[in-house]
TrEMBL record, chain A:
It comes from Bullifex porci. PROSITE patterns: ABC_TM1. Belongs to the binding-protein-dependent transport system permease family. Residues 70-281 form the ABC transmembrane type-1 domain. This is Sugar ABC transporter permease. CDD domains: TM_PBP2 (cd06261). One of its GO terms (cellular component) is plasma membrane.
TrEMBL record, chain B:
Keywords: Cell membrane, Membrane, Transmembrane, Transmembrane helix, Transport. It is a multi-pass membrane protein. PROSITE patterns: ABC_TM1 (PS50928). It comes from the Bacteria. This is sn-glycerol-3-phosphate transport system permease protein UgpE. Its main location: membrane. Belongs to the binding-protein-dependent transport system permease family.
UniProtKB/TrEMBL annotation, chain C:
SUPFAM superfamilies: Periplasmic binding protein-like II. One of its GO terms (biological process) is maltodextrin transmembrane transport. It comes from Bullifex porci. This is Carbohydrate ABC transporter substrate-binding protein. The keyword Zinc does not apply. InterPro entries: SBP. It holds the Pfam family SBP_bac_1. GO terms for cellular component: ATP-binding cassette (ABC) transporter complex, substrate-binding subunit-containing.
Length: 292, 285, 434
């Protein structure tokens, strides 16, 4: 017993420590300091700050816009997570069965990830407000010649569309890794047993792919909850603040409205919400994994 | 015999339909890129007047590329990006693989706590640690404006996700028996890890390298906080003066985007082969 | 155990080597600048479009005065105030920062150097921004706004000559819009949908046009804070009338929130519209849209009400929209002196004066600069400066004013809210600032 503890510590120092040290220095310490700031009235720049207790948290609960943007974000996350994963899984499945030009297509669907957030939003804004409208005018379709970004519902949809466009390729890659990790023996045995088509998918493939689902859903959850760059450059929260997601609201609270403590408290709150949701998701997923 | 043939044609029809489906989706996916490439050769007025036009009034020219290349100090910025991305990726890949290996093989309280801490940290909004981060590393330690600091931070921020993905893979795909055999043969821990375990992680490593390289290469916010001096700026930082207060220079931005993306596209295509060969090697064995 | 020590040693060695390497390259670069320059300062630029121009000025300044100025750009999607805040937190505060007046007010007392005693103060008098009676910033440039017209487009539709001075009331503006429509230009005004444009520049008239002074804008703002109903404010009612008129003749009527700034520049430049409410900063974009530097562009007032003698209808608003402050806290005394010298270079040095006008294409706030603006919009403002047809009010609002009220204005121009709702949003915004 004792020997194994020593072994654990020794291995820990050898393997886990270097990475953990970097991680703690870069992520955890600033986070803890940020946590401390939520108890102050700091405005983000002043040299003086004093402790105000839980006032910022009380303000968070009173901030109506925070809650409405949180609700908007929840809907956005739910729709995006579902769509992204359906598209990604579908693509990965299609592109793991030896279709002609498979590698070319894989690379192609992944390319949206080659562009970073700010430029991505800029390009899509251009596509929505210039290219699509030009197409609409050219073919004389009325609804298409209006910019999708100019009405709340369509702008919201535009955000989701771009999210799916970008994340699907990323998740596809992970699903493909999952598919290639599936043992050939199992699949062969299954097809010898006569399991084909939907049955093969439902009773063999899906259970075996649970780990990939857990990872992908977790990643999509965290990515979509945090979305900021895209929100800022694509819709800027508009039209008339109808698409302002929670990360953007937090950012504006902290910096534009110069209320750093409240912004930080809201960020922490957001963190907790996401932690609970994704924690549950991983927990349920892992349980399924064990059962399978 | 006959039936088999029917099955054959049916399969062909399905294959063709699937191919068409994928191809159509592919074209839709590519629209933004095609538009970017097309318009990167036009002047701003033509871009705004008709982004679809194949015969712009001022014609097509390379001038956006030449301007962007100069204004970005492309070669310097490119080298900076390569250094930052390269080192960060190497560090994070090795450190996270080791970390994940420990978590899986030593399933004790310590690794459980650390592992869940890491997973949780993936959902910390970056804005929530941005100010404390620059305060600690800038005002307190005076470490900003060094590429090494950025590499260090990139490594720290990317740890969680890499560990998370490696962990899942090691758990399900690396047989313990191999390691035990190596141990009996008298291999040290590091030798066991680097010679036996790490090579088995091939496909996942390749995937993670791609994801991390992309994240580092394109990252804007963190480098903008760390690198203030022009001489050490990375590619994304060097393009931002193309965005004015009121209006942006579309042609320049598109050309700059393509100049930024091209090197990474090459890396991706090269690595993609590596993934496949990794998988093939696994199958042969 | 041995192998683990070895491994850690190697990792450490690589890291140390690497850090020292990158440090070396850095000291190398600072050394080379140090050989030609003794002091090195930084300048945060929040006006992306003049980045190249500023770098050229900085290079010339280094040649002339031996001081190195590193121009730091504030990038896409970065709020200048956030940028400067982060830089202060990171201990890398810019020696000089070009910022909006609102941001200067926010930072002045704690961080900015008192510049009240500088020589240029008398050259920029009316445009100086005072905070508690002191001047903490140098008025960098003058920007004016109103309704930009394209004279040749108007004349070719009307078939007669057009005198911009004749548009000095709501009714006269309405009349010419109707005339343009009757002669074939269906919708002669372009209204851009950007929130900064709608929220700060257009809606801002209700404060700036109070009596044309910054002090006056404070009076109306304080009244609103105290709970005065905007519907009882004359300027608010006049403003909404004019906006309604513009919406009636809006080029982008079918999709008001699809009309962006770039399109506005394009449509005005090529004469598809006659008027575009915007500012002198739009000139480079008009050129990109195909406007000719000799073209006849200029400003009419953003008309408010029907009194032809009202200053708001005879003059346009122009103020020092960007100010430069010098850091008092983190910069050394030597750097602060160098920063002052840079400002003096822009104001008093003949090369500096000339480069300022030519490289940035901005209108200098200092009246001793003999170089005339090169473009029609700048020329119009210069003429108005000479003839006194300007009012210099520059309202100071909290930093989220433009985004909150910009959203409310967007809702209004999209027809999703009415005057009453706009008024109540405005009223609530100000009441919440108490």
């Amino acid at each position: 017993m004792k020997k194994s503890t020593i072994q654990d510590i020794k291995a820990g120092a050898m393997f886990a420590l270097p990475g953990l040290v970097v991680f703690f220095l870069v992520v955890i310490i600033p986070f803890v300091y940020g946590f401390y700031l939520t108890f102050t009235d700091w405005n983000g720049v002043s040299q003086v700050k004093s402790l105000v207790g839980f006032k910022n948290y009380v303000d968070t609960f009173k901030d109506v816009e925070f809650w409405s943007s949180m609700w908007l974000t929840l809907k956005y996350v739910a729709i995006s997570v579902i769509l992204v994963n359906i598209v990604a899984f579908g693509l990965a499945y299609l592109l793991s069965n030896g279709i002609k030009g498979q590698n070319f297509f894989r690379a192609g669907f992944f390319t949206p990830n080659l562009i970073g957030g700010v430029v991505l939003g800029f390009i899509w804004k251009f596509i929505f407000s210039n290219v699509f409208t030009a197409v609409g005018k050219a073919v004389g379709v009325d609804w298409l010649s209006k910019s999708m970004l100019s009405a709340p519902k369509t702008a919201y949809f535009a955000l989701i569309l771009v999210t799916v466009w970008q994340l699907a390729g990323y998740m596809m890659l992970i699903y493909i890794a999952g598919f290639t990790g599936l043992s050939h023996d199992v699949l062969e045995a299954a097809s010898i047993d006569g399991a084909t088509g939907w049955r093969r998918m439902r009773s063999i493939i899906l259970p075996l792919m649970v780990p990939s689902f857990v990872i992908c859903i977790f990643l999509t959850l965290s990515r979509t909850f945090m979305v900021y760059d895209l929100n800022l450059t694509l819709t800027k929260g508009g039209p008339y603040a109808s698409t302002r997601l929670v990360a953007m609201h937090v950012y504006e609270k902290a910096f534009t409205a110069r209320n750093y403590g409240v912004g930080q408290a809201e960020a922490l709150f957001l963190f907790i919400v996401v932690a609970i949701i994704s924690g549950l998701q991983v927990y349920v997923g892992r349980k399924k994994e064990v059962a399978a | 015999m006959k039936q088999q043939k029917v099955g054959g044609t049916k399969k062909i029809v399905i294959d063709v339909l699937l191919f068409v489906l994928v191809a159509v989706l592919f074209v839709l996916f590519m629209v933004p890129f095609l538009m970017t490439i097309l318009n990167s050769f036009k002047v701003k007025m033509d871009i705004l007047r008709d982004p679809l036009s194949l015969a712009p009034s001022k014609g097509f020219s390379l001038s956006n590329y030449i301007d962007a290349f100069k204004k970005m100090s492309y070669l310097t910025a490119f080298m900076n990006s390569v250094i930052v991305t390269g080192f960060s990726t190497v560090f994070v890949t090795i450190l996270s693989a080791m970390c994940a290996y420990y978590y899986v093989r030593h399933d004790n309280k310590f690794s459980k706590v650390c592992s869940s801490l890491m997973s949780a940290s993936m959902i910390i909004p970056f804005q929530a640690i941005m100010i404390p981060l620059v305060y600690i590393y800038g005002a307190k330690l005076g470490l900003l404006n060094h590429r090494a600091t950025l590499i260090f931070m990139h490594t720290g921020f990317a740890m969680s996700m890499s560990v998370f993905i490696f962990q899942g893979f090691i758990k399900s795909n690396v047989p313990l028996a191999l390691e035990e055999a190596a141990k009996i043969d008298g291999c040290g821990r590091y030798r066991t890890f680097f010679q036996i375990v790490f090579p088995l992680l091939g496909p996942t490593t390749a995937t993670l390298i791609i994801l991390n390289v992309l994240a580092f290469w394109n990252d804007y916010l963190l480098p903008s906080l760390v690198l203030g001096v022009k001489a050490i700026k990375t590619l994304p930082l060097s393009t931002y003066e193309f965005y004015g207060t009121f209006s942006a220079d579309y042609g320049l931005i598109m050309a700059a985007l393509i100049l930024t993306v091209l090197p990474i596209l090459v890396i991706y295509l090269v690595l993609q082969k590596a993934i496949i060969s990794g998988v093939v090697a696994g199958a042969v064995k | 155990m041995k192998s683990s020590i070895k491994f850690i040693a190697i990792v450490l060695a690589v890291m140390v080597l690497f850090c020292s390497c990158s440090k070396k390259s850095e000291t190398a670069t600072t050394n080379t600048t140090a050989s030609t320059a003794k002091v090195s300062i930084t300048l945060l630029n929040s006006k992306g479009e003049i980045q190249t121009g500023l770098e050229k000025i900085a290079a010339q300044f280094e040649k002339d005065k031996g001081i190195h100025v590193e121009v730091i750009a504030c990038g896409a999607g970065e709020v200048p105030y956030t940028k400067v805040t982060t830089m202060y937190n990171s201990g890398n505060a810019p020696t000089l920062a070009i910022l909006d007046p609102t941001d200067i007010v926010g930072l002045a007392k704690e961080y900015a150097l008192d510049l009240s005693g500088e020589k240029w103060v008398s050259e920029t008098d009316a445009l100086n921004l005072t905070v508690d009676g002191k001047i903490y910033s140098f008025p960098f440039c003058v920007e004016g706004r109103g309704i930009i017209y394209n004279k040749s487009a108007i004349e070719s539709v009307l078939g007669r000559s057009f005198d911009p001075k004749s548009i000095n009331t709501y009714s006269s503006f309405k009349a010419i819009l109707a005339e343009l429509r009757s002669k074939g230009m269906e919708n002669p005004v372009f209204l851009a949908k950007e929130d900064w444009s709608l929220g700060a520049h257009q809606l801002g008239y209700i404060y700036d046009a109070y009596d044309g002074t910054t002090a006056g804008s404070e009076v109306i703002i304080n009244e609103l804070k105290a709970g005065k109903n905007p519907l009882d404010v004359d300027r608010f009612n006049q403003f909404v009338d004019t906006i309604d008129l513009i919406l009636e003749y809006n080029f982008a009527k079918a999709d008001p929130l699809g009309a962006d700034y770039d399109q506005g520049a394009l449509e005005l430049a090529c004469g598809n519209v006659a008027f575009w409410p915007n500012g002198c900063w739009a000139w480079p974009n008009l050129v990109e849209g195909g406007a000719d530097a000799n073209g006849e562009f200029g400003f009419i007032s953003f008309v408010l009400g029907d009194d032809p003698n009202d200053f708001a209808n005879t003059s346009i608003q122009a103020s020092a929209s960007k100010q430069i402050m010098i850091d008092r806290i983190q910069a050394s005394a030597e750097q602060q002196e160098a920063a002052k010298e840079f400002i003096n270079y822009l104001v008093f040095d003949t090369t500096g004066q000339k480069m300022f006008v030519e490289e940035t294409a901005l209108i200098p706030a200092a009246k001793n600069n003999p170089n005339q603006p090169l473009d029609p919009l700048g020329k119009d403002i210069a003429e108005r400066t000479a003839s006194g047809k300007l009012y210099t009010s520059c309202f100071i609002a909290p930093s989220d004013h433009w985004s909150v009220m910009g959203a409310a204005m967007q809702k209004y121009i999209a027809g999703m809210s009415d005057k009453k709702e706009l008024a109540s949003t405005l009223s609530q915004y100000w009441k919440a600032q108490n």
